[in-house]
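Quiz preparation item.
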């Protein structure tokens, strides 16, 4: 029900002055994450994106913004081309952390994932549109246990998905991450149609 085929992006880190010598700290189906610098006390990472949808999610002027969305520090442009067939884009964003096993952010994340998964089962006969309808279901079904900002973020994700032809991916645990201060962040909530 997700885009998770378990296949990590096989590409080497692109040769680029900003990336050379940096440590890889994460990798997914479409993205390589390298540890960045600490600037004014805030740790950053470089995300090397091979999905135009992810690039839009991080850089589009009308991308979702708010307490639950990742902060972009710089858009460093293109660095070659990935085996996925699209350009590699380098963005510099705030460093985020895996959700712990318990706590407020983890509880909200679990609630979002399970509600989304249940809605997907409810709408699974809609095939390709299932994910977007399931997200809409979450948006119009106020749920006990998360606040207005979370509800508004889900709404903003819905608007972005519709605008950019993106599909939600709210089931995979590591697509929801956390700031040091415990705020839940939608790190990688969409993928390409
Ligand atoms: N801002 C970040 N800070 C630290 N690690 C990150 C950050 N974003 C992603 N990661 C790590 O890198 C992995 C891949 O990133 P993700 O954005 O999920 O890529 P993909 O689009 O390939 O799924 C994540 O599972 C997570 O462990
Ligand atoms: Mg991911």
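Solution:
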């Amino acid at each position: 029900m997700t885009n998770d085929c378990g296949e990590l992006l096989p590409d080497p880190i692109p040769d680029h002055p900003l990336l050379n010598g940096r440590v890889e700290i994460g990798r997914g189906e479409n993205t390589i994450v390298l540890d960045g610098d600490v600037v004014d006390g805030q740790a950053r990472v470089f995300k090397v994106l091979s999905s135009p949808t992810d690039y839009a999610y991080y850089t589009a002027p009308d991308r979702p913004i708010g307490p639950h969305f990742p902060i972009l520090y710089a858009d460093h442009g293109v660095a070659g081309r990935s085996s996925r067939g699209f350009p590699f884009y380098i963005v510099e964003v705030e460093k985020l952390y895996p959700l712990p096993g318990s706590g407020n952010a983890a509880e909200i994340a679990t609630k979002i994932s399970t509600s989304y998964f249940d809605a997907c089962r409810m709408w699974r006969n809609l095939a390709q549109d299932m994910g977007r309808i399931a997200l809409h279901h979450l948006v119009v079904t106020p749920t006990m246990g998360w606040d207005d900002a979370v509800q508004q973020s889900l709404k903003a994700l819905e608007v972005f998905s519709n605008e950019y032809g993106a599909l939600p991916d709210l089931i995979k645990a590591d697509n929801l991450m956390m700031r040091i201060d415990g705020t839940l962040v939608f790190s990688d909530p969409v993928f390409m149609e």
